[in-house]
Amino acid sequence: MWTTKTFLTKTKRGNILKIVREHYLRDDLLCGSAACNICPHKDDEYILDSKPHSICALFDYEHYLILDTNVVLHQIDVLEEDALTNVIILQTVLEEVKHQNTAIYQRLLEIIGKKTRKFYSFVNEHHKDTYIERNPGEKQNDRNDRAIRKAAAWYASHLSINNLDGQYPQIVLLTDDENNRKIAQEEGIVCCSVKDYIENVNGFVGLVDKLSKNVIPESCSKDALYPAHLTPTQIHTGIRNGKLYQGTFHASRENFLEGTSVVSGFEKPILLQGHIGINRAVDGDIVAIEILPKEEWRKPSDIVLEDKADDPGDLLEEDTELLTSVKPIDTSDDEITPTGKVVGIIRRKWRQYCGILKPSKFPGATRHLFTPAERKIPHVRIETRQSDVLASQRILVALDSWPRNSRYPLGHFVRSLGPIGDKNAENEVILLEHDIPHARFSEAVLACLPPDDWTIPEEEIKKRVDLRGLCICSVDPPGCTDIDDALHARALRRAGPRAYEVGVHIADVTHFVRPNTALDKEAALRSTTVYLVDKRIDMVPDLLSSNLCSLRGGEERLAFSCVWEIDENANVISTKFHKSVIKSRSAMTYEEAQLIIDDRSRQDEIASSLRVLNALAKKLKRKRLDNGALLLASPEIRFQVDSETHEPMEVQAKKILDTNSMVEEFMLLANVSVAERLARDFPQCALLRRHPAPPPAYFHTFLKAASQQGFELDVSTNKSFSKSLDAAVIPERPFFNTLLRIMATRCMQQAVYFSSGTRTQEEFYHYGLACPIYTHFTSPIRRYADVIVHRLLAASIGADVTHATLLDTKHADALCDNLNYRHRQAQYAGRASVALNTHILFKNRVEIESAVVLAVKRNALQVLIPKYGLEGPLYLPSDKFTYNEEEHFQICDDVILKTFDELTVRLSLDSTNLQHRKLVFQLVKPHIPGFSYEPEKEGEKMDVETVVAEKSNPEDNKGKSTQKKKRKDNAEIKSKKKIKK
Amino acid sequence: MPGPDLLSSQGLRLDGRRPNELRRIRCKLGVFTQPDGSAYLEQGNTKVLAAVYGPHQASKSKTSTDGVVVNCQYSMATFSTGERKNRPRGDRKSQEMSLHLRQSLTAAIKTELYPRSQIDVYVEVLQADGGAYCASVNAATLALVDAGIPLKAYACACTASIAWRGSEPEPLVDVGHVEEAAGGVCLTVSSLPSTRSVALLELSHKLHMDYFDVVLSRAMQGCRDIEVILDRAVREHLAEGWTKQDVVTI
Lengths: 981, 250
Prior knowledge:
The complex is a heterodimer of chains A (981) and B (250). In chain A, 30% of the residues lie in helices and 22% in strands.
């Protein structure tokens, strides 16, 4: 079986170390071609056709394609099209791709996996006839090119053997490397560049558009706009001697000419400004940074700047506007940030971007400018012949390269998502931009489901505790179909002090989602159900989420129960966990439950059970607050959606009833009980959730603003903070306290999942809930974390067996990273969806509402409309207002605007820019002549006036042309950033 | 899935072997004349020398009336690893290996035949590239055969690890250094394949019980394959031995 040839390969690593590795060469590797009559193929091992049909006009004979690495790396979008078939992927290529870009590697593997595509991966590195050794002094790249040529030549001769009639496929090598092509031709291998090949392909329209315009970025020194990047070796040595720093580039959302990067050795993020300072870095790239001398350090600008150019050609406008505004006045200022410039790109982190084409001035042109939806990404130059069709569509574009002489990066069209303004296309954009897996569930996943008419088998009931006789009911928001929790409570009839039995019953999802099945993997990947305003992207298929797992009223369901004995003062006497069968008496909404509790005439079992729960919940809550739990707030709203058009009709702030908090309290109690149990039984791999205490610096601006309103808050511990928040009430402004809490929430860090083996016991603390340990147990239908917790708990009580990955700390850690990432993305997507619907809602309306100031910026106020939970900037012209940096307020004559002030504003939608439709806020009260909106001027006159005002005021105009998407995350980042400074 | 990619998408391992293939084994008996028995064994790039003295009268402190005392010494040449080793023997690892070696060999030797005697086995690892213990056991077995010491069966040792092909576990036999260092589990089995008994079992990391059986059976299969190779080597050695060397010395 194995050949006994040993080859030694040497590699150097770090402080020169000789590594000797075995390398076995085999004679049992197949060529995969049906035209071959030498290799001992079995029937299912023929991948390549014996007579491949040619689709390229340049080569009208039968041929197989061999691809070079650069072709795969740059033209993966072309390969993913169903056009090219009968392709040989060499292992050399596969390894190189894997090394350079894992995302593309995965995509390539997917293509190879598709039988219809006829891509064969040939292990040339281990084949006895195609393996070559690296010559002394030869570069690795050159060796690989030689290996590819060798394999191509081998294939050609291999297929010709025993095919004397000449009826065998030829080999065509596709490569974009000119040098490689030249040598190949000398060696008699047919080769061609991808561009030439694809442009001569017949019958696949649009394939040419997908060609990547890959230019070696540093080669275009003629008319160069940007300084050249350093070479990888220069970067490497620079970082080694500490002259350069490595960091991830984060573009600013407000100012396209500014970005930051956190590098080790500096406390503050490094500021990068201007075209030259950023030097073609795109958000997310890992870059090498050179720190400028201290005299050139600057402050982050607090102006809002958008790239407004309509394709000005390849020119860089002067950065004066940006740079003058941030010139340091006083070098001792504590807002001065270390400033640097990007000198090289270590790794591009480009993905595909959603956006629209910028309308072109010349009809029929093929070169176009593309505006991404994500504002951190620069415009992209693409070439397409379908611009008429695409102009009104949302499209997906991939970036290819960014040569020195191009103002914008070059890219190519990938696919169209649908017409602009179409609800589905817009939702698709939200999902893609937030990297949310939303494809239909695959066949393999659906195969894991039980049949539609599944009922609980007898033997399953025997294994479980039968709670069907108990009066269990569920309370959820209206319209909820994935009910994952239900409750019950009854008085215990026994001697001694009064006590209650309270149970929380959670849908037993893990009974259906078995570990390591396709269903489990899909759920783990999705990690969470994503709620958009008019759409829900389920974590598990509908059959489970809204039927078999959903604890619907009157139906028998499997559950995982947590049952306590609780005394009158809400102290837990004992806790039990067991799997059970339940039959919910009734699935209620919060409002219905509230009505039952309040209706004194109802004395049935449900009513008394609810009353006990409610009374206990209040005591639990009191205790929690006394412990120092924070009551935080975020402006949440609900849309009333038209049942037919799915257009939002009305917005209202979410109502909070007693019953909301009743359910919440018991869920918290269940989560805490489970967390304690897991931490005890699985000290290394329990999945828990922690909320770190925020560093005091985060509170800086917040405390300043609060003290301007006359309140000194104590943020030293969560208990003192909670107390001082409770005390900070202005009787005539009932919303003020909520506002404080909203602002306080934004000073906090996010709570995160983690595996108990990766942290010390003290770090388990949950700051917001003020409990030493916490996890998520109660929503397994919509959160994968809960699924894992269920499995662990089941193993702990002996109801289920463990499996390998469940107990692996490393695996648990990786899982937590994904959970946290998906959780965050789901939140952002939900907010983006709210923003989208708000825009639709305000399409044809204008309202005047009261608002409060959340933050004061140099040229704008961040305002919040409490009624709608809307947030956005209200731009202030600099000729009227003066900004006080010390105290953070804006002043105009005798009007002072500062954080927490109440205003009246006028709301309308500005649709001039289709990509970034935005809500426009105009000041109504306090009245500032010449700036405030005049309510008596109605109708058309008013619009004219704003237009005039915009034109007459360049500063204001610039501000107004930016997007005012209501993004809480955005604001959250902003407020944090400010404090950090 | 835990562990890195040890199997390519075409089902080959990093060095080009399939999961069930051993590394190339080359061996030679009777490489020295001074000891009573000796052997040299290569398992891929792992190279080991073994020498056996005895049985001879046991020193006072070690003597046992039940059977022969097997005294083992495992040492690694300073040049055996990529970075130069400072202590060739006597460190914790070598001492542990010596004990393990003794355990495997005692199981194979018919110890009851030589009460109050002692057999010394010296093993020197010349080059370590994963599975040094296994190579030591295999080489020591050959040296014992060369010394003419009666054995119950060949003692063969082999390692196995686990990789994932999609989500299916795929056990790997005879783990090399690269695969070992990649962080997967490594199960070392020393067994007497013809009697189907296990002399020593060692697991380097945690491995879930679900996968233990497949990994163990792959390692046992490896032991059986090695036994075939050792047996062939012994027979070849004996065939040529009669015609040359031994006849002359007699």
